[in-house]
Model the fold of this input.
Amino acid sequence: MTQKKETITSYKGFNKNLQCRGFQYEIGKTFEHKGKVEACGSGFHACEYPLDVFGYYGPGELSRFAVVEQSGDLSRGDDDTKVASKSITIKAEVDIPFLVKAAIEYTTSRCEPIKEDSPAFTDKNRGQAVATGNRSASSATGNRSASSATGDNSASSATGYKSASSATGYNSASSATGNWSASSATGNRSASSATGNWSASLTTGHYSESQIKDQKDDQYGVAISTGYEGKAKASEGSAIVLTHRNSDGEILHIRASKVGENGVKADTWYQLDANGQFVEA
Done:
């Protein structure tokens, strides 16, 4: 464990009320810790590697994330990139695609540049990006893009017409933006989000969340959650598919509905109850 004085940019997770371990934060505010600073012990904590935040606050509706600035006395732990600091400023709230992009920049800034004739090079129109390993990040931008990340705390983002994004691992996150896009996240407490007409969002794993995002032009998408106590929500004109499992994982009920039918409202989280009926989550 090391300690020194410097100023760094890092990333912090919170619950949905912007609280961490009972302390109330506020966007744009600076907070000062009185007393000793020690990683995993005391001080304000955040992570230098963006995806490390998923180890403390999993992706999904119950968590929020922000870019922060830490300064003063800093103490680094040995397990991941978590840093404790004397002072912390909550700069701006960010989303999953932002964290994915930041994770890629964090990694590439520590690597040698990829040459354009390399098999790993991604062109702007038909890009493909694959990251394999714990805390992986993958991003593909451009028409017909594909992005895949494999490993614990992985994140994947694909942006463009006919995009596809897949993340596999505990606390993984997947986001696809664009018409005919598809987003899939596999692993407990994972989250999947798809934006665009005819999009599909799928999560597999306990306590996972799947959504077709609330955007003006989103139509005809399907949000699917097949894990234990999974949740799904979809925009107007889209549909949801849910399962209800027992604690052993056995499927007891599976049900699908268009938004506007069977009491299913737009942009509202749903689960199936023990009778296989839609209930607001």
